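Would you mind writing out a protein's amino acid sequence and the numbers that encode its backbone to help me picture the idea?
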Amino acid sequence: MNNYFELIIDINPAISEIVSDICFSNFDCEGVILAEETYKDLEMISTTEGELKAFLVSNPGKSAVARILTENRNLLLERGFNEEELGSWAFTIAEKENQDWSKKWKEKWDVTHVSDRITIVPSWIEYTPKCSDEIIITLDPGCAFGTGTHSTTQLCMRAIEKYVKSGDSVADIGMGSGILAICAKKFGAGYVYGCDNDETVIDVAKENAAKNNVETVFELNTADKVKQEFDFVCANILHNILAEIMGDLKSIMKPGGKIVLSGILDEKKGVVLEAVDAHSMKIIEETHLNQWTAIIAERV
């Protein structure tokens, strides 16, 4: 088998999904792990070193890696993250002998119990439900942003479990892997719509929906161009983007409809709360997991 290239980036583990998405979008990347991280239920184990390891099929070259990482890191700084929240993003890249690394990174993933009823199961693991009403979502972790292990995704899924009613129409704005749309459908939502501005995730989300035997509508789009109104909206996006598009998000909510806003570091929640207030929406609940916040609001 051909050798592969191992790209190691020093990051703050809290933004692992953001950097993973950058790797998948910009490099010939087929898998990522945190070098010292293992997922088990809601716990992330051994993350202190904060090394994200990406497995690349081809070598983009050090100069290209440096340029891409610098551009994306500067963009996050402009959007309100600080140096400590991002980590240094110093990197190394080296050619490695292929020892079936695809199995190696899969070993880092396990079944994730998001709540008493919601369970995320990697597609290669056999799993027996604990109870008759358990909601099982099958995914290939690493294929796209939003794999179910990250705190921001789990906060959204818990909100779906609590607030989505049978027959509700649901929108997932910035859907990534489609996991939130799939979750809503499995909790009885009638019509489920998802959109993302990243063309590369659309087919992945459709594949995940098919894998879970649910009917959804996924397309390349942004909130400002969506014409429908929904009973429940999910927006798991960076805090500054949430603030910028709050008016667009409100416009796709039915009167009395609810929204879960996630992707918010605890210390940045004020930015989103101000935007919610500026658009005259009512805050229903705040939930927290690790260092992340989700805000559930209602259009009144």
User: Anything to note?
Assistant: Residues 62-78 form the longest helix (17 residues). The CA atoms of residues 85 and 205 lie 29 Å apart. The domain at 4-106 is CATH 3.30.70 (Alpha-Beta Plaits). Confidence is low (pLDDT under 50) at residues 36-48.
